[in-house]
Amino acid sequence: MTATTAQVMRQHAEQQFAEELAELAKADDRARPENWALSPWAVVRYLMGGTLDNGFAVSPKYIGSPRLMEIAVATLATDRALLLYGVPGTAKSWVSEHLAAAISGDSTLLIQGTAGTSEEQLRYGWNYAQLLANGPSEKALVPSPMMQAMRLGKIARVEELTRIPADVQDSLITVLSEKTLPIPELASEVQAVRGFSVIATANNRDKGVNELSAALKRRFNTVVLPVPASEEDEVAIVVKRVAEMGRALQLPAEPPALKEVRRIVQIFRELRNGKTEDGKTQIKSPTSTLSTAEAISVINSGLALAGHFGDGVLRPHDMAAGLIGAVVKDPVQDSVVWNEYLETVMKERADWKDLYRAFRDVS
């Protein structure tokens, strides 16, 4: 039985925000590149949110600098591919998905980069039963998401590009520079239809794993997505995503109090930055990234505990284990950092006594 859209655990962006995309398309009277569902202006409005002339409110998908999104969209309106780069958890995949949804109406042409990603997954493969029976033919060809995007004039997404072996990465060079995908076995090629482009993501924690060749780097415009600049921005991101995910997962708990979200975000920011928010105390940073995405995960885990095993109200002891798990990745080094933070920072804050007791109990 095929699941309906309402039943799936996670809807694609073009499904979840179909109403917003439709309203933007109706209100969008600006020039659109060929095969784009929206104009570049409307794509940025979709990402950044705002109120349309007819009063319809578009929710923000990215909370940060509008200029970064304008640069990303302008890149895709040219013949250049886009590389979204930054630390883990800075919404690279999220932005990539929403860009593809707004531009192509389809975010599913995705290649997930891993150490095992092969050239066939980037280019094309073969149905070996057909290949053995009839030899190389169009019928035996199994197109990759990249080939489908080229044929349809859509956006192809490549996640974690630097996780892919270097020799496999370089199979993208011809696609990005010549906009063609040769098929030597059939003495033919697939030429990209207008509207085709590639959005790749990479995180700087993978630097040195599989570095991009100079030739491949030249084919991309790079946009670096930073961690949220201010605590207010990060709190807004966490509140928004926790609410969305809570609805999608049908968690039986009340939305978290802003006070709890703010305290979790502050802990993450202080440990990440190596100093307290007021700048008065220097502290050690753990080996973990402590990204915004991990803060969202800690709170969602706490909501699940509160909803299923508590009274539905998020409290410090619901978040304690999840937060410590996010911080302490190295059981030796990170435990020292965490215990020092508990005793020198958290214990000294009068309004954080409940947090201190909950975390100390778990530690």
TrEMBL record:
**Where in this chain does the record put each ATPase dynein-related AAA domain?**
82-220
Query: Per its UniProt record, what InterPro entries does this chain match?
Result: ATPase_dyneun-rel_AAA, CbbQ/NirQ/NorQ/GpvN, P-loop_NTPase
Listed Gene3D superfamilies: P-loop containing nucleotide triphosphate hydrolases (3.40.50.300)
Q: Which PANTHER family match?
A: MAGNESIUM-CHELATASE SUBUNIT CHLD, MOXR FAMILY PROTEIN
Q: What is this protein called?
A: AAA family ATPase
